Automatic annotation (TrEMBL):
EC number, UniProt record: 2.1.1.80
Biased amino acid composition, Low complexity: 283-293
Segment forming the signal sequence: none
Methyltransferase found in the keyword field: yes
Known catalytic reactions: L-glutamyl-[protein] + S-adenosyl-L-methionine = [protein]-L-glutamate 5-O-methyl ester + S-adenosyl-L-homocysteine
Gene3D superfamilies registered for this protein in UniProt: Chemotaxis receptor methyltransferase CheR, N-terminal domain, Tetratricopeptide repeat domain, Vaccinia Virus protein VP39
Keyword Endoplasmic reticulum belongs to the record: no
Region (Disordered): 283-309
UniProt source species: Candidatus Sulfomarinibacter kjeldsenii
Keyword terms, alphabetized: Methyltransferase, S-adenosyl-L-methionine, Transferase
Name of this chain's protein: protein-glutamate O-methyltransferase
Domain CheR-type methyltransferase: 1-247
């Protein structure tokens, strides 16, 4: 990256949190050339100087609109909306005296997520009759202007059930328009999540959707954003992140709750046994920017700490040993306890799948593999295992689909899951690739 382009990348990161990776350098460089020429600046240095001196300018608005990624669609990661509908809203309805619900959709892009939330809330038999509203915010003014129009193209509504589309939208030549009574419940507001303090004076939210935003930030900025979220979350409120995002390495106050097919986060203290202390999860992770497929470290050797209870890592190693020795029931019990502590660990779910498969309960094994892949879709070796189980269950079409997907990602790999699978006698990646090809070709 040339020095001025690096300077602009840093400037953009300091304003938006957005990290411009090396692979995007050329795109940024040509974008800057175009802006320098269009704005009549006498060179990049002058452009940088202008940006520094005019933080509220139209030019900054344009930059933020161009660099941020607006990928979204209605009912994205539908398991979360199902959990909201089937579990979270019912719980809120059961314990609430006040018939009000306030939702914050942070990083709302062109309003796809806010529209989905409005639909789910409106359709809920109890909460739907309450006074509920959604605050939808984004750093990008242009995206917000689109969101206010409430019109979505065919791709954005492709996952909306036909009956829901019929009830809540009007179709016209520009696309599908969300009904005005739902649009009235959504307030769109420009808000930069990395501004300090986040400008939500005195507001509190029962639900916060902060999905697929943190992935673009460095961990220190992620932590700062989560602290702001904690500030405005009702004490019994719920946070949803994107399926591939995790607070696992951030050490935040929020604690994960396993909802079956997905996770949400809540503030302590909460009742019940579904919580996991992020203090526990902190040590069980790699300090990487993005969520990882290996939310557990390489197990350490047992230490002789006197009477201290065995650490998470030691117990994990014990379950792998149990699998190696063929003590599958012991492994299942150990892994269930570990999952209880660290429900966000894709590796624990995957190993549970292995143990369950070896105990000849393929349905449950498939469920565990799916949970692992939900958390870490990039674990292609686990997708391979899922494909095999589906095949065993007679679901050959679904199996071939998974073999195909696994094939696109399988390659030379290292990592905790890969080395563990090697220990457990599974084929190496090149053999898996071969098997995937055979299965696909014989389909
Ligand atoms: C990939 S979209 C996610 C949209 C939606 N939440 C979803 O999951 O489908 C990321 C959004 O985050 C917004 N964003 C990025 N940086 C931001 C910041 N610093 N403050 C507020 N929004 C930001 C982007 O403009 C973009 O609309």
């Amino acid at each position: 990256m040339s020095e001025p382009i690096q300077e602009i990348a840093q400037l953009i990161e300091s304003v938006s949190g957005f990290v411009i990776g090396d692979r995007s350098t050329n795109v940024l460089a040509s974008f800057v050339r175009e802006r320098v020429a269009r704005g009549g600046f006498a060179g990049v240095e002058r452009y940088i100087d202008y940006l520094r001196r005019h933080p509220e300018s139209e030019e900054w608005r344009h930059i933020l609109s161009k660099i941020t990624i607006k990928e979204s669609f209605l009912f994205r990661a539908v398991a979360q909306f199902k959990a909201l509908e089937n579990t979270i809203l019912g719980e809120i309805a059961g314990r609430r005296a006040k018939r009000r619900l306030r939702v914050w959709c942070a990083g709302c892009a062109r309003g796809e997520e806010a529209a989905t939330l409005a639909i789910v809330l409106a359709d809920h038999p109890i909460v739907g009759t309450w006074h509920w509203s959604v605050l939808a915010t984004d750093v990008d003014d242009a995206a917000l202007a689109d969101a206010e129009r409430g019109v979505y193209g065919p791709r954005a509504v492709a996952r909306v059930p036909a009956e829901t589309l019929e009830r809540h939208f009007v179709r016209h030549d520009r696309g599908y328009e969300l009904n005005p009574e739902l649009r009235r419940r959504i307030e769109y507001r420009q808000l930069n999540l990395i501004a300090q303090p986040v400008d939500l004076a005195g507001e509190e939210f029962d639900l916060i959707f902060l999905r697929n935003v943190l992935i673009y930030f460095r961990p220190e900025i992620q932590r700062r954003v989560i602290e702001s979220v904690e500030e405005v979350l009702e004490s019994d409120g719920t946070v949803f992140l994107g399926p591939s995002e995790s607070l696992i390495h951030l050490g935040t106050k929020l604690k994960a709750r396993d909802l079956g097919d997905c996770f949400c986060y809540r503030l302590p203290p909460i009742s019940g046994d579904e919580v996991v202390d992020t203090a526990i999860t902190n040590r069980a992770t790699r300090p990487t920017r993005a969520p990882t497929a290996d939310p557990v470290p390489m197990p350490r050797q047992p230490s002789d700490d006197g009477d201290a209870p065995p650490s998470f890592d030691v117990r994990l190693e014990a379950t792998i040993k149990a699998l190696e020795e063929g003590s599958h029931r012991r492994a299942v019990a150990g892994l269930a306890a570990l999952r209880h502590e660290l429900p966000e660990s894709a590796v624990i779910h995957a190993l549970e799948g292995v143990a369950l498969e070896r105990l000849a309960v393929p349905e449950k094994a498939a469920h565990a593999y799916r949970a692992a892949l939900y958390l870490a879709p990039e674990m292609d070796e686990v997708r391979f295992l899922l494909a095999r189980v589906l095949e065993e269950l007679g679901r050959s079409k679904a199996a071939v689909r998974e073999y195909r997907t696994a094939l696109t990602g399988l390659g030379p790999a290292s990592g905790f899951m890969t080395s563990t699978m090697k220990r457990l006698g599974y084929p190496a990646h090149d053999q898996m690739i071969q098997i995937c090809l055979e299965k696909i070709n014989s389909d």
